[in-house]
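re: that chain from earlier
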Amino acid sequence: MTVNAFIPGPEVASWNSNPEYVSYPPIFICLNTPFEMDHSAVDADGDQLVYSFCNPLLTNVTGNYINPPGAPPYPEMPFYPEYSATYPIASSPAFNVNPVTGLMTGTPNLMGQFVVGVCVEEYRNGVLISSSNRDFQFNVTICEPNLAQSIPVPADNCAGTVVTFSNVSENAISYHWDFGIESIDTDTSNIENPSYTFPVAGVYDVSLIVNPGLDCADTAVVQVNTFEAPDVDILVADYLCLDNTDHYTFQVVGDFPDDSEINWSFDSGTDPLSANAFTVFQVAMNESLAEYNVNLLVEANGCPTNVSTIINNPPDPIAIIDPQESFCDGLTYTFSESSLNTTSLLWEFDDPFFDDQSTLPNPTYTFSNEGSYLISLMASAPNTCTDTAFMNFEIFGGLEAFFDPPEPQCLEGNSYDFEAEGNASTSAVFSWEFPSAVNTTSSNIPNPQNIQYDASGWHDVVLTVQQNGCIVSYTDSLLIFRISKTNFKLTQQ
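^ sequence. v structure.
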């Protein structure tokens, strides 16, 4: 047998372990008999393994005893014309290796010696990081298949540890049993269907060799449990809230035979009231109870074990969004809540194409635009039904109001026009104040005109705008020149 492995450089994988094969190939296989072999490997790093036939490799060192082997690369072994790396052995159906499981199957139909190569490629995150090649020889011979089939697991019992074994092997003429007591060598039998009294309760690897000593011998191993009583517990495997009702999934965990009898019982008003599966999915609890009682009976070979557990039924969360109180903060708003019975919160601000979520109790969020937003708040707590509240919030941009002071005029015949500027809409309420004007001291239209003054100097003007409950004011001044009299005298010389 030849094994070749490619080790990647650190630029591909900074660390790596080579896959380890779980079994060795047999030396002999039977002619015209379906063959099956587990050629899988185990990778300690959890990388993906892919199996395929590949060309066996030859040595590049002369001589019969090769130590040490030569350095790569190694030449590929040539095949006869009727064979290839993917058809290395005469067979029908042809030999095949499952790329996922590594299971090799096929039926040889010609006696002889054949060399088979199997490659295992190792992928990490979809990238090939290494490969290994294992070559071995199959010797196809005429033989009667001896099938040491899986030994039926004997029924264990609690009162004693006497176990009777049933042998279902085929084409066998002799047997050898070993009952797995490591400290002695007398725990054997050569009869077809033996009985054995185990010394103490425990777990034993019982093996059966069919036709021991012959070329086509076969071996089966079964694990026998002898114990006093099941050692079990209740696992709360999952919780779901369906239709505002608590649903639990329960599972039996511990040390117990697969054929144990399982009996669950639950409180009155629970659906279902009882069950007998190892895992009971989505049991609808009685919401009116403050506590849920779960009882489990596991019986194996007449040995019962009773366990129970109590699950508290906490009050469900209530999501409460505090109403909007401010409309004058522009696009940025700080939310608050008064939720009950909650341990975690999730806000969603209804702002498309933005990261519009928060888990804070009082988040501050800046919206992308003005508008009406449907705000949601989901309140949750372990093993409870979540609650979601919704509330519309009106978000307005910051209100702005100002005006450009008119150019200075002379006192005589002065008349000033004003125009409100900013981002107020036509539905806003405008209020102008002209404290020192003579013809009017106030106006409620956006653009008042013909405001007159009877005194020169600086005069204050105040603009106030109200919209959506927000108020903003702006003050500026205008200048009036007093009348200047010009006089001169002409003197003749």
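The longest strand covers residues 127-141.
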